[in-house]
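Task card 7
Instruction: Convert sequence to structure tokens.
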Amino acid sequence: MGTTTLVQCFREQVNLLRLAETMISSLFTPSNNFSGASRKSLRDSSNLALSRWHALLPGFVQWNKWEPTSKPLLPSVAALHVRIVLNSEACRGTYMGGDSENARAMCLSSAQDIISIVRKYRSSYGLKHTPFIFIYGIVQALRTSQAIGIAQESNYLINILEESSATWDLARHIRVNL
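Output:
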């Protein structure tokens, strides 16, 4: 991967961080007193912004979950695709909006994407030196799998946490305290 493509990848990560900052400052601040409709509108706008960002990514940064796991996955590209937090509140049932089924579907889709990314990363590099963002994504996917009641995926993610604990003691701590 050349310098130009690394710079473009870094720019996309910066753009994603800006989107995340906007989401966090508007949706997840303790001082906001949004009604259900206002909160839903903000979440929908954030989802739309994330979808636009993803659709406009350059081809070398695009990730396709249907690619074989034997095709190498760049860690910087994989880190771009962890987005489950946006809808986790609704997925767990603490959000009282009218579209909880849609949010649950988005959470499940995101959790499955995270699992696919982890599988691909694992086959390319192993999990001994897992990036920290993966631990976060794995935990969010695990929370979603447990909330929705998908035992097979939950067990897989618990095992992944165990494998990742060689680098991150936090992964071991989370796994032990489940």
